[in-house]
């Protein structure tokens, strides 16, 4: 069978999902994703590909525009692509009009999230293990939003249903910093977080429905502004031993969960007796769990 015939046969295939692991990029193949494997030749672009996962693709540079022809792509995951320092340009991302899920994992040399703001259909974004994004020392300098005057930052065009991150400082990196309509925030490692990222939360408070923090070992309090989060229905703080009291909470809240809590907080939330009971009495599902010690049994 001639090479042309082989290409025609591959073009007829209608696979929708592709997972590529440990790809070696060949410069002689151009920038086509499908030029990266021996089974799929040059210029045979799976234009109807819906799901793409790249794993440990050290030599693959997504910033070259290799994704621009995948206009049917709805889910894209990059994991362990350590040579990736930047993402596709806004012009490339603009072409991915149905991309709703993007996971960027363990891309340790990624320096910028520029371009993501062009993904108008994006609903789920996960960024974990990308340490260079938060290496800028300026991100560690606190800024304050005047609650009465509001925030003058121009809002991002992104409209996320869920943002999952492993470090709270990612909320200071554009375009995440300018988000104003995120519905769910999940921080998978909040171990370095002493207080909730109030500036970012205030910017998203009318949209936020769910805040979940894992390993909140340094979190010592919740901000007084929590009561203004009018759409919030779920607040979960796992392993939060330093919180001793609660502020007033929004009337919309239907689920409150704080695990490994301080003994004082447990006492303050005691039904009918605790000082904070009046703040949680009308919440349908409340779980305030003190840390279990083996010598208490």
Q: What characteristics describe this protein?
A:
297 residues; alpha/beta; Leucine-rich repeat, LRR (right-handed beta-alpha superhelix); eleven-stranded parallel β-sheet; 5 helices; elongated
Question: Beta-strand percentage?
Answer: 15-25%
* Low-pLDDT ranges: 1-13, 21-45, 142-150
Q: Please state the structural category.
A: alpha/beta
Q: List the quaternary state of the chains.
A: single chain
N to C succession of SSEs? HEEEHEEEEHEEEHHE
* First-residue to last-residue Cα separation: 75 Å
Return the domain count: 1
Q: What is the fourth-level CATH superfamily?
A: Ribonuclease Inhibitor
The rough form would be described as elongated
Name the helicity range.
Answer: 10-25%
| Tally of DSSP helical segments | 5
CATH topology grouping? Leucine-rich repeat, LRR (right-handed beta-alpha superhelix)
Average the pLDDT over all residues and give the rounded result.
82
At the first level of CATH, what is the class? Answer: Alpha Beta
InterPro entries: LRR_dom_sf
How would you describe this structure to a colleague?
By secondary structure, the chain is of the alpha/beta class. It has a single domain, classed as Leucine-rich repeat, LRR (right-handed beta-alpha superhelix) (Alpha-Beta Horseshoe), CATH 3.80.10. Helix content is 11%, strand content 18%. The protein has an 11-stranded parallel beta sheet. The radius of gyration is 23 Å and the shape is elongated.
């Amino acid at each position: 069978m001639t090479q042309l015939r082989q290409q025609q046969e591959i073009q007829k295939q209608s696979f929708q999902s592709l997972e590529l692991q440990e790809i070696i990029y060949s410069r002689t193949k151009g920038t086509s994703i499908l030029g990266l494997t021996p089974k799929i030749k040059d210029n045979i672009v799976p234009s109807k590909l819906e799901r793409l996962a790249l794993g440990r693709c050290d030599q693959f540079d997504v910033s070259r525009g290799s994704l621009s022809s995948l206009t049917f792509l709805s889910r894209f995951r990059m994991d362990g692509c350590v040579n990736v320092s930047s993402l596709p340009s806004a012009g490339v991302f603009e072409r991915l009009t149905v991309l709703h899920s993007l996971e960027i994992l363990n891309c340790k040399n990624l320096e910028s999230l520029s371009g993501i703001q062009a993904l108008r259909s994006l609903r789920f974004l996960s960024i974990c293990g990308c340490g260079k994004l938060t290496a800028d020392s300026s991100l560690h300098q606190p800024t304050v939003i005047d609650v009465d005057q509001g925030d003058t930052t121009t809002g991002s065009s992104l409209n996320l249903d869920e943002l999952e991150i492993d470090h709270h400082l990612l909320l200071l990196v554009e375009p995440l910093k300018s988000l104003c309509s995120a519905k769910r925030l999940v921080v998978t490692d909040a171990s370095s977080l002493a207080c909730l990222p109030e500036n970012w939360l205030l910017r998203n408070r009318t949209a936020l429905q769910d805040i979940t923090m894992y390993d909140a070992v340094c979190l010592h309090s919740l901000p007084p502004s929590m009561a203004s989060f009018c759409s919030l229905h779920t607040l979960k703080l796992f392993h939060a031993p330093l919180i001793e009291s609660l502020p007033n909470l929004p009337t919309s809240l239907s689920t409150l969960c704080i695990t490994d809590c301080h003994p004082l907080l447990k006492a303050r939330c005691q039904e009918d007796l605790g000082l904070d009971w009046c703040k949680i009495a009308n919440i349908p599902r409340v779980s305030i769990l003190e840390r279990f010690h083996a010598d208490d049994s």
